[in-house]
Design a protein that fits this description.
By secondary structure, the chain is of the alpha/beta class. The chain has helices at 16-28, 39-44, 47-54, 72-79, 90-98, 104-111, 124-128, 130-141, 167-178, 213-223, 252-262, 305-308, 327-337, 378-395; strands at residues 5-10, 32-37, 82-88, 116-120, 145-146, 150-153, 159-163, 188-193, 198-201, 204-206, 228-233, 245-248, 268-271, 278-280, 299-301, 316-323, 342-347, 359-360, 362-366, 369-372, 376-377. Bound molecules: cytidine-5'-triphosphate.
């Protein structure tokens, strides 16, 4: 995302304080953030806050002769790779819908050719008002993207729709917009993530400690490189990535069915999920009482998903292998058995990057090569995996 310019329009909703967090997050991600504030917004949060967080001047006035931009709204409008209005009040949404440009923020919005992302924040009645809904519809039909509003507690004390979307969700949407022309643009990718759970009875299951973080990182990275992403997810505590189609599953059988139905037409399959190899032969419909005797579980083999969907044509297939010994050897065996282009092998025997860690160290194994990666954030490893996928797609 680095070297890209985000123009962040902040308007006079109480959620303006959260825009400071957004500005900080985007700046830390390497983006150049140029803040434009309405006069009302400056009454809620000082421009100095944004100036400090972004390291750049904050624009508030049309005719500020001390500002480095000559004709401010045109310069900012031209420079924007994406224009984000967060928070956006009902008033500013109405102005955007009708082309009213009576301050620096709305002038810049009218003058820009950059994609526009709007994060509404207002009282529920204002959001639900037919005037606001009609304005939102007008903007949507012109290609403006909206994120939120979320439902929850409002500054007015009430509860309902109108909270600004989370900073995470807004940052996700910005990533997706900036990645529209990335090296996976036009590609469809199916990612599986998390561990499956095999029910013993209504309150117990056989599972594994997979957090889902690696698969979610692959899904988010692919989205930010322009791919249309479907994520088949086992139960996890992770936030759903915005801009990704998520199919929730619980068991290995459900994951197989989800993959089988979503796979036709995909270009890439990345199987990062830790799928259970065994499930109880029968699931009790009532909670098993413990009694005194030892419990014996009769287990059956689950279907191997990759082997089962082998016949569905996909340009590139990537598997993961969690191993405690003979990493490369075991990965090579899976490469052939599961018809994969390469395997991302992890050593889960050591304690270096335990389950649930935000980092990972892996060996990328194909038929004639095994390359160790350094210890990386899961997101950085996801991008390395996708670099290989891109090369394979280009040669496919
Ligand atoms: N996998 C799958 N279906 C299963 C089990 C695993 O598609 N029932 C996929 C995983 O998502 C992963 C790859 O196969 O991409 C390797 O998973 P792993 O559990 O390491 O391999 P197994 O085939 O289960 O082999 P083993 O238990 O012998 O290590």
């Amino acid at each position: 995302m680095s070297q890209r310019n985000v123009v962040l329009g902040v308007t006079g909703s109480i959620a303006a304080y959260k825009a400071a967090d957004l500005a900080s997050r985007l700046t830390q991600a390497g983006l150049s953030v140029h803040t434009v504030m309405t006069e009302n917004a400056t009454k809620l949060v000082g421009p100095a806050t944004f100036r400090a967080l972004t390291g750049r001047p904050v624009a508030t006035e049309m005719f500020d002769l001390t500002n480095p931009f000559s004709i401010e709204h045109v310069s900012l409008a031209d420079l924007a790779d994406v224009f984000v209005v967060a928070p956006a009040t009902a008033n500013v949404i109405a102005k955007l819908a009708h082309g009213i440009a009576d301050d620096l923020l709305t002038c810049t919005a009218l003058a820009t050719r950059a994609p526009l992302l709007v994060a509404p924040a207002m009282h529920t009645a204002m959001w639900e008002n037919p005037a606001t809904q009609a304005n939102v519809e007008t903007l949507r039909t012109r290609g403006v993207r909206f994120v939120g509003p979320a439902v929850g507690r409002l500054a007015s004390g009430g509860h309902g729709a109108g909270r600004m979307a989370s900073v995470d969700d807004i940052a996700d949407e910005i990533g997706a917009i900036l990645g529209r022309n990335g090296d996976l643009a036009g590609r469809r990718i199916l990612v599986t993530a998390g561990g499956t759970r095999e029910a013993i009875d209504p309150v117990r299951f056989l599972g594994n400690p997979s957090s889902g973080k690696m698969g979610y990182a692959v899904a988010a990275a692919a989205r930010d490189r322009g791919a249309a992403v479907t994520l088949v997810s086992g139960p996890t505590s992770l936030r759903r990535p915005a801009g990704v189609r998520v199919i929730d599953v619980v068991s290995a059988d459900e994951m197989l069915e989800a993959v089988r139905s979503a796979l036709p037409g995909q270009d890439v399959l990345v199987m990062a999920a830790a799928v259970a190899d065994f499930a109880p032969k029968t699931t009790l419909s009532h909670k098993a009482k413990k009694g005194d005797a030892a419990l014996k579980l009769d287990l059956r083999r689950t279907a191997d998903i990759l082997e089962t969907v082998r016949a569905i044509p996909v340009k590139v297939k990537v598997g993961f292998a969690a191993e405690t010994e003979n990493l490369v050897e075991n990965a090579r065996d899976k490469l052939e058995r599961k018809d994969l282009d390469f395997v991302v092998a992890n050593d889960v025997g050591g304690t270096d990057c335990p389950f649930g860690s935000d980092e990972n160290q892996a060996i990328l194994v194909n038929a004639d090569d095994a390359t160790s990666t350094p210890r990386l954030s899961k997101r950085a490893l996801a991008d390395l995996v996708l670099d290989r996928v891109v090369t394979l797609l280009e040669n496919a």
